[in-house]
Amino acid sequence: MENRYNSPNQAPTKLLAIHIDPQILVDLPTLSIDPDVFCCVLPSEAQFNLLKKNSRLWAQFPDGEFCDFPYYIKNIISLLQSFKSYSQTLVYPVDTFQSFIKSTQAIEKKIFSNVSMTPGENVKDLWDEIIKKVNIISTESHTLKGLVEKILEVPFLKNFQTSLIILHLKGQTKAELMGTMWRNEHVHSLVGVKDFNMFFNSIRKSKIKSFSTESFPKVNLPFNGNFLSKEVTSKKYSLIAIVSRHDFLNYSNEEIELFETCIDLLQPHFERLIDQEFSDKNISELRICLKDFPLPLRIRDGQSGSSFMNDLYRNELQDQDIFFNKKIKGAFSLDLYDSDELRHYAFDLFHFQRISLLGELLNTLRHELSNPLFGLKLGSQIFTTIEVPADDKDIMREIEKNVDRCQSIIENFSNLYQIQPGNEPVFLNKMINESLVLAKSEIREISKKISYAVGTENIQLNVPLIFVVQVFFNLIVNAAQAMRSQSERGELTIQVSINESNVHIDISDNGLGIQDDKIVNLFKPFFTTKSQGTGLGLVLSRNLALKMGGNLEYIPNQYKKGACFRVILPIT
Amino acid sequence: MKHILIIEDEILIQQSLKKLFERKGLKVDVSASGKIAIDLILAHNYDRIICDLMLQDISGFDVIEESKQRYTLEQIGQKFVIMTAYNSPQVLSRANSYQCKLLNKPFDNLDEALRIMTE
Question: Which CATH class for the B3-118 domain?
Answer without folding.
Answer: alpha beta
